[in-house]
Amino acid sequence: MQLMSTVKMFVSMLCLTGLRPTACKTDTVSCRLWADPQSPSLYLNGDFMIGGIFSFHFYTRSEQNTYTRQPLQPQCSGSMDFRELRYARAMEFAIQEINNRTDLLPGITLGYQIHDSCAAVPMAVKVAFQFANGMEPFYNDTDSCSKSAAAAVPAVVGESASTPSISMARILGLFGIPQVSHYATCACLSDKRQYPTFFRTIPSDHHQAAALARMVKHFGWTWIGAVRSDTDYGNYGMASFLKAAQEEGICVEYSESYYRTQPRSKLERVANVIRRSTARVIVAFINSSEMRVLLEELGRQPPPPLQWIGSETWITHPEFRKYNMCAGAIGFGVPRSVIPGLRQFLLDLSPEQALKSPLLTEFWESSFSCSLKGSSGGARECDGSEDIRALQNPYTDTSQLRVTNMVYKATYAIAHAIHGVICNDTQCDKSAKFTPWQILDQLNKVNFTTKNGYQVSFDSNGDPVAVYELINWQIEKDGSVDVVTVGRYDASKPRGQEFSMSRAISWLGGQSEVPRSVCSESCPRGTRKAVQKGKPVCCYDCIPCAEGEISNKTDSLNCVHCPPDFWPNTQQDSCLPKPVEFLSWDETLSVILTVFSIAGAFIAVCVAVVFYKHRTSPIVRANNSELSFLLLFSLTLCFLCSLTFIVQPSEWSCMLRHTAFGITFVLCISCVLGKTMVVLMAFRATLPGSNAMKWFGPPQQRLSVLVFTLIQVLICVLWLTISPPFPFKNLKHYKERIIFECGLGSAIGFWAVLGYIGLLALLCFILAFLARKLPDNFNEAKFITFSMLIFCAVWVTFIPAYVSSPGKFTVAVEIFAILASSFGLIFCIFAPKCFIIMFRPEQNTKKHLMGKVPSKSL
Q1: Which of 330, 321, 329, 331 is nearest to 479 (CA)?
Q2: Which single residue of 135, 219, 486, 506 could bond 37 by disulfide (Cβ 3.0 to 4.6 Å)?
Q3: Which residues does 795 contact at the CB level (< 8 Å), separation at least 6?
Q4: How far apart are CA 76 and CA 358, in angstroms?
């Protein structure tokens, strides 16, 4: 009862939509169709009928509705597509083969109703309703509802195009009638929520679009054009391709659509866009009917040579081989196959058999340009000399059985599903009653191998495993175009392993070199891509990497910074270790400074030898020989301590160089300060009643030097304890090289050491300046004043030079300051004395040194 109510409700719905009856009553239903049912193009009676629908024609007759009379029913028009006829006859062949088998549906005869959809939605919808309701012109609710409630066919093979298949799938899905398409590839049909009864033996365009995008990327094309059919097939397929292309970094210069019934002005506009484009590669996700019209239009004013990338619909179509502008085209097609016995079946067609079907009659007459007896053709009458085996058209061409094999597999899939419903291990029940839902359930489970060796099964979306052949149109020696398989794509394999090439590709013009199609040439290493304003990302300028950055691959989007210890090479495509710079022994500057340092130490030793040899002479004794020898020792250490700066910095060398320098210089200045104070005290001791020398005798002199030096030692110990100098790589001063130097650790400690030396030097200078005019023929205070003046000048100049000198020159400036001040001391204090000792011995007498001069107070 519930099923009967559903039928009544659906019939009432048809009454409202005007699709089914002319008179309807809700309580007592008695209906007659408005128009005659669509007669099948090919028909065979059987125990169970299978529906079939193919696009034998591509146009329908249209008229202007006046709304004053009933519109005419849709009728197909235009020339016949012989390839679609081959598909339909392959279904006939498969059913004939199944009926002759004893292992599949034994004792059962399958029949078929094959219709023409004209590749139009209205006709496909009408046929879908016929598959659901049958072809009886009357319906009465007093009849047994079992006949009315059952579908006319348990399953349908077809349709070829995606848009009509979508419309049919929506209708057939309401009744649970499974539809197995051989050529509807729209990815949208994989949605089981919208199309729960749809299956197909050809892969979804989702896989084909991804494969096309990866192929385009594989050959280095980043600037392409795109054209599509303005249908569900073209729009969904191109949308999937554009999404995949964007993920692969491919830019599309234009994306145009066209449908064969649109105005010619639209076709001309699309053709002009293709002609004016700069992309040399064009992806055509387009039906064969639109492709035919487009190529004819492009043939009027041929565009520049284009590399065509084709979808499965037209890339394997033999009709397009005549268009030489497509030579070199590549694309994906379902694998070619061989169906044993099919060619003989197709050619086993006589005029008498052709007259049994209007479709076959039209085929015969259009193939041989004659009129069969009993037909209403105006051409010459066929005389029996026509030889179908001599025909060369898509109907007889079985060299590339690709989609034909999909029809073959679809038919067998339905037969296996019926077998699973009505047959057990031993026999089949011819009188069994079943619903389309049971066939639907069995189709989800089928898994078999056809006689020609192909596996048939469906995933949860009703799709098969996506396997394609890579097709290439190659020019033969005679100038003809041949469809050649050059590779294979298997979507079930891991990413990156889907492609396998079997032979070389022939590109446009028969060239062996891959054509280029880019908006901008690749950016070399050492540069980065900068997108041009207002243009796609594939149009860019190549900008050299900024200082300190590299790009080590072509078409880099960004440059990367080198690690801190590295710097780019000249080409800015790799990072090289920065050269480490420090004052080493093998440099000319270091050699010069070393020579002066050793020479200074040698001079100090020589002076000490001279003084020691003449230690009893008045000039040596008069200048405090003990402090003189200690001063010469400290100057020797000052000269030698500069050598600690000419070495690769280490923890010990950094601590040694600063502390040794600070302590030896304090020892040196302390000795000079002691000598200065001795001069002052000696003069005051000559004054009446003075006992100054009592308080600054040799013990006090030694103690003062020791105390002054110990203070510096204490400062250095605190410095080394709290924050000692340490070796570090200075990366900030120079970008392209590393300065390996000694960090000060505590800057306060460093400047305290220098400040203490400066304080002693300043005190010494002041005291020597005050004693410069004391009565004495050889007043040492004059020379000490001059030496301290040089010393202070050197170190005052050293401070800004030290701060501003770069890299290893900082160390050189410090060494220069040490050597200059040391040479100043030794020459100013000891050179005059040595000159007298060596060259003026007559002046080296006590009488001369104590010459009569007017006394002056301090």
Answers
A1: 321
A2: 135
A3: 754, 757, 758, 761, 817, 821
A4: 12
Q: What is the 3-state secondary structure (H, E, C) of 807-858?
A: CHHHHHHHHHHHHHHHHHHHHHHHHHHHHHHHHCHHHCCHHHHCCCCCCCCC
Question: Can you state the angle between helices 162-175 and 232-247, rounded to 10 degrees?
Answer: 110
Q: Report whether 767 contacts 673 (CB < 8 A).
A: yes
Interatomic CA distance for residues 523 and 539, integer angstroms: 11
For the chain of 858 residues, list the mean pLDDT of each consecutive stretch of 10: 43 42 47 79 94 91 77 84 95 96 93 93 92 77 49 91 94 94 94 95 92 90 94 92 92 92 92 93 92 91 90 87 87 93 94 91 91 71 88 90 95 96 88 90 95 93 93 86 90 84 88 90 90 86 92 90 89 89 80 88 88 78 72 86 82 83 84 75 54 59 83 89 84 80 83 85 79 58 76 75 69 82 82 80 67 40
Determine how many CB atoms are found less than 10 A away from the CB of residue 221. Answer: 24
Strand pairing class (540-544; 527-531): antiparallel
DSSP string computed for 690-753: --HHHHSSHHHHHHHHHHHHHHHHHHHHHHHHHS--EEEEE-SS-SSSEEEEEE-S-HHHHHHH
Strands 110-116, 76-77: pairing is unpaired
Identity of residue 499: F
pTM of the model: 0.66
CA–CA separation, 356 and 371 (whole Å):
14
Task: Name every residue whose Cβ is closer than 8 Å to that of residue 724 and which is 6 or more positions away in sequence.
Answer: 654, 655, 745, 746
Residue whose token pair is 């679809």: 410
CA angle 789–791–793, rounded 5-degree value? 70
CA dihedral sign, ordered 606, 610, 613, 615: negative
The full set of domains in the chain, from first to last, is 1-34 (no CATH), 35-63+70-136+147-203+407-455 (3.40.50.2300), 206-333+465-510 (3.40.50.2300), 527-578 (2.10.50.30), 588-726+733-849 (1.20.1070.10)
**Token pair for residue 107?**
């004792």
